[in-house]
């Protein structure tokens, strides 16, 4: 597994080794020894799977209590995945990084606690699977505005109108949001 820091180095791009043969392929999506050696979490409390149609934009999400680290990947389709640093004390506070994740490149992102996370679906359908280091905490679940100009995410919309949940369409801007110290 190749593990590389992105421009915000706490966010890692993971590229598993894919073993293809005449039956199909095999890859490791998580290996506790490899993760421990790379300084990544080895304790995960929840696994999630969502399915979305083209143009769906989920995010930007985080939770204030027991913030979640996330290991995210796409098992069907293609998305543009984004992490925004919302740790006020961080030198990269308010900055974002993004990567395309697909069932072609089999790439994964590790997003540490303290980041808001979201993705835009670029394929007809996308199955999005992820592990979380802590349990979902509904009461402290928060959204941040996907289009906040102060963050300036360069979503590859290519004419798509994003399809948002009501809570995400009405989400506050970073300047008005509760974030991490
Ligand atoms: C996140 C979550 C939601 N739910 C329920 C609540 C709700 O009825 C339904 C859909 O929830 P949401 O609209 O929050 O789902 P979704 O918009 O897919 O939320 C997810 O978005 C991505 C970007 C993330 O980063 C995730 O952490 C998570 O926030 O599922 C759970 O039961 N457990 C969970 O862990």
Q: Quick summary of this structure?
A:
With 181 residues, this protein is mainly beta. The chain has 2 helices and 13 strands. The strands form 3 sheets. The chain has a 6-stranded antiparallel β-sheet, with no helix packed on it.
N→C terminal distance? 33 Å
Specify the biggest β-sheet: 6 strands, antiparallel
Sheet with the most strands: spatial strand order: 1-2-10-7-12-5
- Principal-axis shape equals globular
**Class by helix and strand content?**
mainly beta
Tell me how many strands there are: 13
Mean pLDDT across the residues is 98
Compile the SSE list and pairings:
Layout: E1 2-5, E2 12-15, E3 18-21, E4 24-27, H1 32-37, E5 46-53, E6 57-63, E7 70-76, E8 78-85, E9 96-102, E10 108-111, E11 115-121, E12 125-132, E13 141-143, H2 166-169
Antiparallel strand pairs: 1-2, 2-10, 3-4, 5-12, 6-11, 6-13, 7-10, 7-12, 8-9, 8-11
The protein binds dtdp-4-keto-L-rhamnose.
């Amino acid at each position: 597994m190749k593990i590389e820091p992105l421009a915000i180095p706490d966010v890692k791009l993971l590229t598993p080794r894919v073993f293809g043969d005449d039956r199909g392929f095999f890859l490791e999506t998580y290996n506790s020894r490899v993760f421990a050696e790379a300084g990544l979490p080895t304790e995960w409390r929840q696994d999630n799977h969502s399915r979305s149609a083209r143009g769906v934009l989920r995010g930007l999400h985080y939770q204030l209590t027991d913030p979640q680290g996330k290991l995210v990947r796409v098992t069907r389709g293609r998305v543009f995945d984004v992490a925004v640093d919302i740790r006020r004390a961080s030198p990269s506070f308010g900055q974002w990084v993004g990567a395309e994740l697909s069932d072609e490149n089999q790439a994964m992102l590790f997003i540490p606690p303290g980041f808001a996370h979201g993705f835009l679906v670029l394929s007809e359908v996308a199955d999005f699977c992820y592990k979380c280091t802590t349990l979902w905490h509904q009461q402290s679940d928060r959204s941040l505005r996907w289009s906040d100009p102060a963050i300036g995410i360069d979503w590859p919309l290519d004419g798509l109108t994003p399809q948002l949940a009501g809570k995400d369409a009405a989400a506050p801007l970073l300047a008005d949001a509760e974030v991490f110290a």
